[in-house]
Design goal:
Blueprint (H helix, E strand, L loop, with lengths): L1 E2 L6 E7 L2 E5 L6 E3 L2 H14 L2 H8 L9 E4 L11 E7 L9 E6 L5 E5 L1
Antiparallel strand pairs: 1-2, 2-3, 3-4, 5-6, 6-7, 7-8
Bound molecules: zinc ion (ZN) (2 copies).
Length: 115
């Protein structure tokens, strides 16, 4: 988990032109990650994968305190609202990318997206 150096929000990884970037959904800050950093990032995720996470996975549909409110970026597939909470969670093997969760602020509909 990395935090935006500008606004302190949780940043999430995305692929751009074949390169991994960390992207801040709140202020749009983009951090380019070189190959060494990618390895460091993966190792860090493995270390973070503790038995405690399994308890969190059971409650995966509840937005954690680290959830970020996205406005105008994602639409709820159920009611069409564009204010949606976003967070990521490791639900599979530690070396797999984390699952992205979204929860509609308006109707509470929660869905997930595998990276
Ligand atoms: Zn930011
Ligand atoms: Zn909704």
């Amino acid at each position: 988990m990395r935090f935006c150096p500008r606004c302190g929000s949780v940043m999430y990884p995305r692929m751009k032109d074949g390169k991994l970037q960390l992207f801040c959904p709140r202020c749009g800050y983009v951090l380019n990650v070189d190959d060494e950093d990618v390895e460091a990032y993966k190792v860090k995720r493995k270390v973070e994968h503790s038995p405690r996470e399994k308890i969190i996975v059971v409650e995966a549909d509840k937005a954690p305190s680290t959830a970020v409110l996205l406005k105008g970026q994602v639409r709820c597939p159920k009611c069409g609202a564009d204010e949606v909470y976003f967070w990521m969670m490791q639900t599979r093997a530690a070396d797999e990318p984390p699952t992205r969760f979204y929860k509609c602020k308006v109707c509470g509909y929660t869905w997930r997206e595998y990276a």
